[in-house]
């Protein structure tokens, strides 16, 4: 076994690998009461907070110049106070007849993050980033190999959703609803390592306008590689979001290598925290499992995973690996994948294979940012 990278042993508001600055405050960083207070302190009428918020969350309008029901002088002042530009588009790529759209953003300090909009006949989903880079060091993940630059602010997280909800509402995608319905925290970063801002973002997304975007919390998924203290804390948040656990191996020997945080919290402890979340919330846990050729796709590992999950409130989401350029990791062959699925289902574990989207547009998380950084 090779020497494994060390990973952070803390779980909340993870420290960056290098000096970075947070962006200026945006209205999405605050609840409605906080926005009123900030506006009143600036000498404007507090009711302007609801006007600004209705434009941003209700109409998905991010350009203050378009908010013409606010007097021009007040609009300029309020925009400078509460609507700084957080995301600057660098590249926007589309595939699947325009129904998959990947965005690369540059933040105020030059950091790069990605998000993806995916349209389906019955829903529209956005996959968003919670950190620029990631400190979890999973060797098969492009983002994990880049290291952590910094946590995103609450508003930087929310702004990805608002922007892409606006894209969906414009009708540019084909045969899909125009209203964004689902959000998955599965982009760049470990969401539970930026705990406080991610939870604040979730609350902003589920609060009705003008407080927030008014999404169903049952349509929000928060992923983790298994930061046990944060998982247990999440169970106490009185939220009904879906918890997605990136397991990727059922045995500690392999998971120590694939998911280095397993050196701190072993498979049994991570699963115990997942079952505690399921029991507290009544929500089925999604077990994420990247299928990696000749690494974690053996039949005996399918059988072991089946034994660990049988009878639990869980669902396995098998992910065909999207290899990064130059990587030694590759996707499992389809016959191997089908046998893995068969064995899990035979054990009574609900199992699906994730729809592969965006392979031709650097679909794996972190690939687009990495290619831009190398340009």
Automatic annotation (TrEMBL):
GO MF terms listed in the record are:
4 iron, 4 sulfur cluster binding; metal ion binding; rRNA (adenine(2503)-C2-)-methyltransferase activity; rRNA binding; tRNA (adenine(37)-C2)-methyltransferase activity; tRNA binding
- First-tier enzyme category under EC: transferase
What PROSITE patterns does this protein map onto? RADICAL_SAM (PS51918)
How is the co-factor bound, per the entry? Binds 1 [4Fe-4S] cluster. The cluster is coordinated with 3 cysteines and an exchangeable S-adenosyl-L-methionine.
Positions contributing to [4Fe-4S] cluster binding: 134, 138, 141
Q: Which residues form the Radical SAM core domain?
A: 120-359
Query: GO terms for biological process?
Result: rRNA base methylation; tRNA methylation
- Name its cellular compartments: Cytoplasm
**Record flagged with keyword Cytoplasm:** yes
Tell me which residues this entry annotates as catalytic. 114, 365
The family annotation for this protein states: Belongs to the radical SAM superfamily. RlmN family.
Q: Mention any additional remark.
A: Reaction proceeds by a ping-pong mechanism involving intermediate methylation of a conserved cysteine residue.
Name this polypeptide is given? Probable dual-specificity RNA methyltransferase RlmN
Protein species of origin: Rhizocola hellebori
Taxonomy of origin reads: Bacteria, Bacillati, Actinomycetota, Actinomycetes, Micromonosporales
Task: Name the gene that codes for it.
Answer: rlmN
């Amino acid at each position: 076994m090779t020497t494994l990278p060390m990973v952070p042993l803390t779980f909340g508001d993870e420290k960056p690998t290098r000096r970075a600055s947070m962006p200026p405050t945006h209205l999405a960083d605050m609840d409605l009461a906080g926005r009123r207070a900030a506006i009143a302190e600036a000498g404007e009428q507090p009711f302007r907070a609801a006007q600004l918020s209705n434009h941003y969350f209700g109409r998905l309008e991010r350009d203050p110049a378009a908010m013409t029901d606010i007097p021009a002088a007040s609009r300029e002042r309020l925009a400078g106070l509460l609507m700084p530009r957080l995301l600057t588009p660098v590249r926007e790529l589309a595939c699947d007849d325009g129904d998959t759209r990947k965005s690369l953003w540059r933040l105020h300090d030059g950091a790069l993050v990605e998000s993806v909009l995916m349209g389906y006949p019955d829903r529209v989903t956005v996959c968003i980033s919670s950190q620029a880079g990631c400190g979890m060091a999973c060797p098969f993940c492009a983002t994990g190999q880049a290291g952590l630059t910094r946590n995103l602010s609450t508003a930087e997280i929310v702004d990805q959703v608002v922007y892409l909800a606006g894209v969906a509402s414009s009708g540019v995608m084909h045969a899909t609803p125009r209203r964004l319905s689902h959000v998955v925290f599965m982009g760049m970063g470990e969401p539970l390592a930026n705990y406080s801002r991610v939870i604040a973002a979730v609350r902003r997304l589920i609060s009705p306008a003008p407080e927030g975007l008014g999404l169903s919390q049952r349509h929000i998924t928060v992923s983790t590689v298994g930061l046990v203290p944060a998982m247990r804390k999440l169970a106490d948040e009185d939220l009904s979001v879906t918890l997605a656990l990136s397991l990727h191996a059922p045995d500690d020997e392999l998971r120590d290598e694939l998911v280095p945080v397993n050196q701190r919290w072993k498979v049994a402890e991570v699963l115990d925290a997942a079952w505690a979340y399921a029991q507290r919330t009544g929500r089925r846990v999604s077990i994420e499992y990247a299928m990696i050729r000749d690494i974690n796709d053996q039949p005996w590992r399918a059988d072991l995973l089946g034994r660990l999950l049988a009878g639990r409130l869980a669902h396995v989401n098998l992910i065909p690996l999207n290899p990064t350029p130059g990587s030694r990791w590759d996707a499992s062959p389809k016959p191997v994948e089908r046998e893995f699925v068969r064995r899990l289902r035979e054990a009574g574990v609900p199992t699906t294979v994730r729809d592969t989207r965006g392979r031709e547009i650097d679909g794996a998380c972190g690939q687009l940012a990495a290619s831009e950084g190398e340009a």
